[in-house]
Amino acid sequence: MSKDDIFEDWKKNRFIVATVDEVHQGILVVMTDIKYWVNNAEELVEWCQENNCITKGMTIEIPDEETLLLFRLKWS
Question: Residue 65: CB partners within 8 Å, gap ≥ 6?
Answer without folding.
Answer: 27
